[in-house]
Amino acid sequence: MKAAIITIGDEILIGQIVDTNSAYLAKKLDQLGFQVVSALTIGDNKEAIEGALLNYLGKVDVVIMTGGLGPTKDDITKKVFCDFFDDYLVCNQKVLDHITIMLERIFNKPISEINKQQAFVPSKAHVLFNEVGTAAGMLMNKNNTLFVSLPGVPFEMKHIVEEQLAPYLNSKFYSNINVHKVIITYGIGESLLAEYLEDWENNLPEDIHLAYLPSPGRVRLRLSVKGDNREVLEKRIAELIKKIPKTVIPYIRAYEDVDLSQIVIKELQNQNKTISFAESCTGGRFSVMFNSLPGSSSYFKGGIIPYASQAKIDVLGVDEKLIEKYSVVSEQVAIEMARVARDKFKSDYAISTTGNAGPTKGDSEEDLGTVYIGIASSEGVYAKKFSLGQPREKVINGAISKGLELIYNDILKK
Prior knowledge:
Elements: E1 2-8, H1 10-13, H2 21-31, E2 35-42, H3 46-56, E3 62-66, H4 77-84, E4 89-91, H5 93-106, H6 113-116, E5 120-122, E6 126-128, E7 137-142, E8 145-150, H7 154-172, E9 177-186, H8 190-202, E10 209-215, E11 218-227, H9 230-241, E12 252-254, H10 260-271, E13 275-279, H11 285-291, E14 300-304, H12 309-316, H13 320-326, H14 331-345, E15 349-355, E16 370-377, E17 380-387, H15 392-413
Parallel strand pairs: 1-2, 1-3, 3-8, 13-14, 13-15
Antiparallel strand pairs: 4-5, 6-7, 7-8, 9-11, 9-12, 10-11, 15-16, 16-17
Helix pairs in contact: 2-7, 3-4, 10-15
């Protein structure tokens, strides 16, 4: 079963908003057993919408469109649908009643003629009722392709998909199963990882596919297979994972698609340990990462962002003479930052970062991209130097990945 996704909106094409609808729909369709063959973003104009519909007609089983269902003149999806399916608009009383209630009772305003237009849908359409908004979804079929039009507002779109569209697709299409298994590796590059896995990869069954998904500091390995029995498919993949070469095992951090921060957090909770941060070049990103989950107070003690050199002295309490002697970007300062943070917050662990992230040097003559990461624990304090290159965002992301690796290794020593 093949599917395509179309997102409509000039605001996406000019970079004004990020298209999160496609990512959600692709994942949902994959879970439903579809193969997503294309994701397309087009503008709010008749030619673009008609062209996209014609492009997929008869070539895929399902096309899901989002956007263009609002009450204003630039929302033209329903009109294009009518032309494409040789249909006309009719008022859906259920939708009209719902819009009236939402506006009059919830928003305390009378329904206008513009709002009433949202109750009009193509006469041949199967309506997907929108309980959390005013724009209804629509289903229409042509040449064995099911076309679905949904609101562009993400929470409205997701609600309709979960409550109505997904059950409908399950009832109309043969339920194939896509199984994916993700293995997270840290501390090894994609090319070396591929070298270690070469023989193992060459011996994979033809229907099982391996993908390398690199990102700063880590490589995800994704094994994928299709079939009609989830239990059998998962067992096959599990047997293959058991055969991963021993050279790769030390770099594996998880057998699920999670960030290393979540793995560290889980281990902190298991050991009933706490952590704190003193962040300069990472600007508080560690702290945000560790306090974003419910229950973070059980393991996260706090963080300080002494970005400027003087702040490291005045706020954090780093000895000014230490900075003068070794530079603000140095092993000695990173060590002191981690030690002080652990003491101040009375945490079991502390991470510190200090570096020249760029694009220009600050109060240190160290090369751009140089970062020192300090780790403090009951076993002592140490710091390591990393050269992370440029640009700035790469340095910051790299520092976070290296810091997570260091603290992960320290925690597992206990």
